[in-house]
Write a structure and sequence with these properties.
The chain is α+β, with helices and mostly antiparallel strands. It contains 20 helices and 10 strands. Helix 15 crosses helix 16, helix 16 runs antiparallel to helix 17 and helix 19 packs antiparallel against helix 20. The termini are far apart.
Length: 420
């Protein structure tokens, strides 16, 4: 075991210190574990702060509530209790050991052995503990992997993967977020050998991991290694003949234009712009409705030429799914910028798509000023003819550049009613 001590403002959070004190007295122990420790050592932002304790779940609840804290037994059967203090939740989990695994989930038993708890975790940098005073406790050599940003399986990689095949995707996800250089060769080889095991996973879990991976600041290196090991083709066969060459250009364009990293747009860059493939991905991964609709609407969206006038582009945005058209423009801009690096003749195309991208960012869909009730008030009878007139008036309004006002349109309704 190695130990070092850190200083950090987040360690002095009163709620955190209270929980560590409550769970760590009278013969029990409690330490911060996982992401908060890892991120602090890597100089990354701190998110949730999780706690590991020797207290059994029921004892965790009893102690927390005796101290006046609210508890939520969200995963108590797995040893996890959420302790709410000052409107913030802290996950407190009893030390565990794996008893049985089947490649998808593990049966665990609670314990008091910190090293056994560390060894059941996936990667060395995720198995670092921190005492209340800032002392880092390293039981499996994770501190050695921090300076090089090495994502390394704990123990034998193939053995760890067979416990849960999702760890293949987690290997690449953590490399995307925290890794540097070339991925650990033993981990890469194990992922390549055991990639068939991904077929047995819940597709929701696969999509969750892929979405998190694609949300990394720059996931292109991780995606490249996934492709070279055959892992990407296993979970995203639509990318096999299409390739991932567009992804680095998209990420470079995101940085150049200040766009936030967008997992859905990055996914779209890796599959063909065809409805069948988009629907297949969304269905297989059982995406939430919003993600499914965005991907399939992107695949169905019309193309916007880079020389399109802003007026014509506004009409296209209005008559189509605006976000889908915008997604197409952004991907076209990224591709054009990549081509312009080698061929300056593409610069005019880049300028055109950049203009449209900026326009779409600021565009707000205008509201058509008439409704069926207006036509009825003007003397038209409800029915198919009213619907046709309303559509015709909307077309006239759009073609005017959304400039025809309500009274002009109402006058047209009156004329239509008289002629009818």
């Amino acid at each position: 075991m190695t130990a070092t001590r850190i200083e950090a403002d987040w360690l002095h959070d009163e709620s955190l210190q209270t929980i560590l004190s409550v769970l760590g007295r009278d013969g029990e122990e409690a330490r911060i574990v996982g992401g908060a420790v890892r991120n602090h050592l890597l100089g990354e932002p701190i998110g949730d702060v999780d706690i590991a304790t020797t207290c059994l779940p029921e004892e965790t609840v009893r102690r927390a509530e005796a101290a006046g804290l609210k508890t939520v037994p969200s995963g108590i059967e797995h040893g996890t209790v959420i302790i709410v203090a000052a409107h913030h939740g802290f996950e407190a989990t009893t030390l565990r050991e794996d008893v049985e695994t089947d490649g998808r989930r593990a049966k665990v038993r609670f314990g008091r052995d910190w090293e056994a708890d560390a060894r059941r975790r996936d990667f060395t940098v995720n198995a670092l503990y921190c005492e209340a005073d800032g002392t880092i406790v390293d039981l499996i050599g994770g501190l050695d992997d921090i300076p090089s940003k090495t994502i390394r399986f704990i123990g034998e990689p193939e053995e760890r993967i067979r416990e849960d095949y999702l760890r293949i995707l987690r290997f690449f996800r953590f490399f995307a977020w925290y890794g540097a250089g070339r991925p650990d060769s033993h981990g890469l080889l194990a992922c390549a050998r055991l990639k068939d095991g991904l077929d047995g996973l819940s597709m929701e879990r696969v999509w969750t991991e892929m979405r998190r991976l694609l949300a990394a600041p720059d996931p292109s290196r991780a995606i490249l290694w996934m492709r070279q090991t055959g892992v990407l083709s296993r979970v995203l066969p639509e990318s096999e003949k299409w390739g991932t060459d567009a992804l680095p250009g998209l990420i470079a364009t995101e940085k150049a234009f200040g766009w936030p990293g967008d997992p859905m747009l990055r996914l779209a860059s890796m599959i063909p712009h065809r409805a069948a493939e988009a629907k297949a991905v969304a269905t297989r991964w059982k995406m939430a409705n919003a993600d499914r609709d965005r991907l399939t609407e992107w695949a169905a969206a019309p193309e916007a030429r880079p020389d399109l006038s802003e007026g014509a582009f506004a009409k296209l945005l209005y008559r189509s799914k605006a976000e889908a058209v915008s997604d197409r423009v952004r991907l076209a801009l990224a591709l054009a910028r990549s081509k312009a690096d080698a061929n300056p003749s593409w610069l005019e195309t880049v300028a055109g798509y950049a203009r449209l991208a900026r326009f779409s960012e600021n565009w707000k869909k205008p509201a058509f000023p008439l409704a069926g009730a207006d036509l009825k008030a003007a003397g038209m009878k409800p029915g198919p003819e009213m619907g046709r007139v309303l559509r015709d008036l909307e077309d006239r309004w759009v073609e005017s550049g959304f400039r025809l006002d309500r009274q002009t349109l109402l006058d047209a309704v009156g004329d239509a009613a008289k002629s009818g």
